[in-house]
Design brief:
about 425 residues; alpha+beta; five-stranded antiparallel sheet; 30 strands
Length: about 425
């Protein structure tokens, strides 16, 4: 075994390997970066030195999506189907499937030790399905959405993110054939989340206008970074966190660093970027290694990623709900004083004189109608003048009102005055 390791192992110090374009793939695992070509694996921490060993695999191509787990790395062929595991310096094929060729530009992730693939393009169509790898039969199965859940339209090139047990999907493109029978791709600006426990989709809103539709071009370079997605396109660099509705633009990036980048890989263990850059006037790529501050700079502008939207139906429902609440509240409020007074009538009676309580009793009996002054003036001595009885009535109403305000916890008078509609010379009083 030691002889074999020495035979296949070579250490490069101070030399940077170059790779022919489209003839390698790269990924990270733990503190190392790995680059695989047709016969060898090149391993480095920071590009200062490389270790090389032969893999003895027969790759049909080098088009793989990389999915990192805690103790292993998965390699899923672009287009879906074929799945490899890299662990402990060895590659192992996991599936008994074939290259599906219908999952190009999909969003691939792992959840509860299962590998998932959402959306994508292939076989002349764009898809909205979610598939997962079934390790029991080593085949792919469809993840079903709840029948009562409205789901997003078919799409590719989405910004995807997994947070706990929730899949977030932002934007993407869908195909469209115009009147000249030319194939085009529509920009989709809707944002959704899927609860992977309940199988329910929820619509979240619309991408903000600051977020250019050009970012959903196949030429955009995307990759995971700091829990979100880092995107490089047209000399600009964005970072999105869909779950927290955050979009950041790095505005102080050296444009020379972004030229001819083929892809990037961020290793959170060592906090380093590995960037593959196509060399000028050649068909080879070389790697450079940078810290986040060295690549992204320190100038950041933050926005909301999307605006929460409400359809006309939802808006109408909310308006009706508010109106109903207001009406019920007003009705309840108009009856509440009357109800409180009735409930406490025996206690109130003990605090009022006979004449005062007789007036209140009549007001309660006539509620919600008002009672005119002449109808309750008879509770006072008939030998008094009209003006004297009116004066006593006002004092009586004032005493009643103070007690009623105490029992109803009201800061405003409970008994209100107004003029009779038919004869404005006649005053009325009522329980508010």
């Amino acid at each position: 075994m030691l002889f074999l390791k020495l035979f296949f192992l070579t250490i490069f110090s101070g030399s940077t390997p170059e790779f022919s374009n489209n003839s390698f793939f790269s990924f990270h695992a733990k503190e190392f970066f790995y680059t695989v070509d047709s016969d060898s694996v090149y391993v480095t921490k920071n590009g200062e030195s490389y270790e090389k060993w032969a893999h003895q695999m027969h790759w049909p191509h080098f088009d793989f999506e990389v999915i990192n787990r805690s103790n292993e790395t998965l390699l899923l062929t672009k287009g879906g189907g074929v799945l490899y595991r890299f662990k402990d310096r060895s590659f192992e094929r996991l599936d008994k499937s074939f290259e599906h060729r219908n999952k190009y530009r999909s969003y691939d992730f792992t959840f509860e030790n299962k590998t998932f693939s959402y959306g994508g393009y292939g076989l002349f169509n764009v898809y909205s399905n979610l598939t997962f790898f079934n390790e029991l039969n080593q085949e792919w199965s469809e993840y079903f959405f709840h029948p009562n859940s409205k789901s997003p339209s078919p799409r590719q090139l989405v910004i995807g993110q997994l947070e706990d047990s929730v899949l977030y999907v932002a934007g993407g493109t869908n195909k469209r054939v115009n009147e000249q029978l030319e194939l085009n791709f529509n920009f989709l600006d809707d944002v959704w989340k899927l609860n992977l426990k309940t199988h329910f989709w929820t619509y979240l809103g619309t991408l903000n206008s600051v977020f250019s539709k050009d970012i959903f071009s196949p030429s955009t370079i995307k990759g995971p970074y700091n829990g979100g997605t880092l995107m490089i396109f047209n000399g600009r660099v964005f970072w999105s966190d869909v779950s927290n509705n955050i979009l950041k633009e790095f505005t102080n990036v050296n444009p020379l660093l972004l030229e001819n980048i083929k892809f990037f890989d961020f290793n959170p263990t060592t906090n380093l970027f590995m960037l593959s850059k196509r060399m000028h006037h050649s068909q080879v790529s070389r790697f450079i290694f940078m810290t986040p501050s060295g690549l992204l700079g320190d100038s950041v502008v933050q926005h909301q990623l999307y605006s929460k939207d409400y359809s006309a139906r939802h808006l109408l429902f909310l308006i009706l709900l508010v109106v109903i609440i207001i009406v019920v509240y007003l009705k309840t409020k108009s009856k509440s004083n009357y109800s409180v007074i009735l409930t406490n009538s025996n206690k109130i009676k003990k605090e009022l004189s006979f004449e005062d309580f007789s007036i209140l009793e009549q007001l309660l009996n006539e509620h919600p109608r008002a009672v005119d002054f002449p109808s309750i003036l008879n509770f006072f001595e008939p030998n008094l003048s009209y003006e004297s009885r009116v004066k006593k009535l006002r004092l009586s109403i004032s005493r009643i009102d103070k007690i009623l305000m105490t029992y109803t916890n009201s800061k405003t008078p409970i008994l209100k005055f107004r003029q009779n509609k038919n004869d404005r010379r006649v005053k009325e009083v009522y329980v508010n």
